Amino acid sequence: MREWIDKLFEHEDMVRMGHHQRAADGNLGLGWLYYALARVIRPSRAVVIGSFRGFVPLVLGKALADNAEGGELWFIDPSLVDDFWKDPEAVQRHFSERGVKNIRHFLMTTQQFAVSESYRLLGEVGLVFIDGYHSEEQARFDYATFENHLSPEGIILLHDSAVVRTSRMYGDDRAYEHRVKCFVDELKKDARLQVFDLPFGRGVTMVRKSGA
Ligand SMILES: C[S@@+](CC[C@H](N)C(=O)[O-])C[C@H]1O[C@@H](n2cnc3c(N)ncnc32)[C@H](O)[C@@H]1O
């Protein structure tokens, strides 16, 4: 595992985006949690919405591949920050050069994915990682799109949930407020859910259905 992590961190952007990672001691930060959940739940399918350079898809994809059952990671990202996800061959190379070959990328928004044939065929999902556009409305849409597909033992994670803050990720002229925390506060009022915050890095929140 350490060898894989060191190779992962050779790409300098893999320590960005607030997952509390640290290259110096091969520390995946919150990535350990993502990896562990995928090894414990052992889902045949996991979904990631949004990623800057693929840290979460790679960690979850690796975990699924390490499970004896295998599994597939569906990664939804329309590449709105820059062109990084636009070329399908470059995307597959980016993942396979890091030893992960079970990621299927959808170059689309969650809105577009939700009306696609792939969504109709999706079936059960054991892990959903929400890290796309961080408005309250989009977090709600991302959650609603997948909550009914969640397996009974499944977990939904929402990243950047620790604080409300301004992001200039899409340029100074498109600065906006991260308001995932506001959506999470709404989920906490739902007695049918267990909602647990981990305020490390930019924070991640885990959600599961308590009666499941
Ligand atoms: C860089 S990541 C993680 C967010 C980051 N921590 C930030 O500061 O905003 C955001 C990703 O979400 C993707 N994205 C934006 N809007 C989306 C949408 N409607 N559906 C799916 N992905 C989306 C972008 O293409 C981008 O790659």
UniProtKB/TrEMBL annotation:
Gene3D superfamilies referenced in this protein's UniProt entry, alphabetically: Vaccinia Virus protein VP39
Highest taxon of the lineage: Bacteria
Xref: InterPro entries: SAM-dependent_MTases_sf
Protein name per Swiss-Prot or TrEMBL: Class I SAM-dependent methyltransferase
Upper taxonomic lineage: Bacteria, Pseudomonadati, Acidobacteriota, Terriglobia, Terriglobales
